[in-house]
Amino acid sequence: MTRAADKAAIRPFHVNVPEADLTELRRRINATRWPDRETVTDQSQGVQLATVQQLARYWATEYDWRRCEAKLNAQPQFITEIDGLDIHFIHVRSKHEHALPLIVTHGWPGSVVEQLKIIDPLTNPTAHGASPADAFHVVIPSLPGYGFSGKPTSPGWEPARIARAWVVLMKRLGYTPFVAQGGDWGAIITEVMGAQAPPELLGIHTSMPGVIPADIDKALQSGASAPSGLSADERLAYERLAFVYAKGVGYAYQMGLRPQTLYGIAAIFVGILAAIFPARRAAKLDPLKALQYE
Question: Which residue would you say has higher pLDDT here, 254 or 114?
Fold first, then answer.
């Protein structure tokens, strides 16, 4: 096999986290040195100490990673190299002959685990009250640096590059044409795929459409007052977005501007938990239920 063919190979993948790693994870969670509690009675200063302690106790004493691991391994998983980086993905073909190929992209903080529940309804619609015409062949990749995909060693894996990589992946699997779906960062990548308009892409669907005009977005980021001429609904949307920019995405600014300074969330596992919590809360997702994925 040539080197180029070897890089393009699709290799089966199986999750098997060493037990020693899980033991060390629990030890480090239990060894957390906790800060003083917040000085207010609400969440205005961030995640409340009691909340994080509750989540940490569950994570260290009750959470069953092996159950989640088994759910992942129940699906066909693969790795292939694209543009110098290993990309992990789940690939489930429908039994229905004319199923439409679909690539689904997760967001942050997220992973392919969140999409496990949609696989059977999409690939096996007749078991869920739909018709064979509603069937999809489903491809769910892990974003670069996420889950079991490779970690970039240099800058440049922005949405446009990932969008191009997803087209390579679908063509490598023999899917032309296909459609794409995504949420959060996955929505951005999916919209970029639509903008790039590869001939193989029939259409896109996102759960976080980028519909804010550029001038409005610029005003929001600057903290300016709402522009004149907005309807009542537009003004309400502006005010809510202004709150998000001012109060809801501080973590995103830090990650975007100085990601290398966030050593705490790599060294202290509860730091990861606390960092993810605000995004979960903003999306109205219960972090404990997320840990209780089963």
Answer: 114
SS (H, E, C) 30-58: HCCCCCCCCCCCCCCCCCCHHHHHHHHHH
Give 55-114 pLDDT, tens digit per residue.
999 999 999 999 999 999 999 999 999 999 999 999 999 999 999 999 999 998 889 999
In a 10 Å sphere around its CB, with 0-12 CB exposed, 13-18 middle and 19+ buried, how is residue 134 labelled?
Answer: middle
**Host domain of residue 238:** 214-248
Calculate the average pLDDT of the chain: 90
Instruction: Report residue 90 CA to chain centroid gap.
Output: 14
Q: 127-151: per-residue pLDDT in tens?
A: 999 999 999 999 999 999 999 999 9
Domain count for the chain, please give it. Answer: 2
Query: Burial level of 181, CB count in 10 A (0-12/13-18/19+)?
Result: buried
Q: Which amino acid, 189? A: I
Which 3 state secondary structure label does DSSP give 201? strand
Asked whether residue 180 is domain-assigned, the answer is yes
CATH of the domain at 173: 3.40.50.1820
Question: Which residue in 51, 64, 67, 59 sits closest to 30, CA to CA?
Answer: 59
8 A C-beta contact, residue 187 and residue 209: yes
Cβ pair 193, 204 in contact under 8 A:
yes
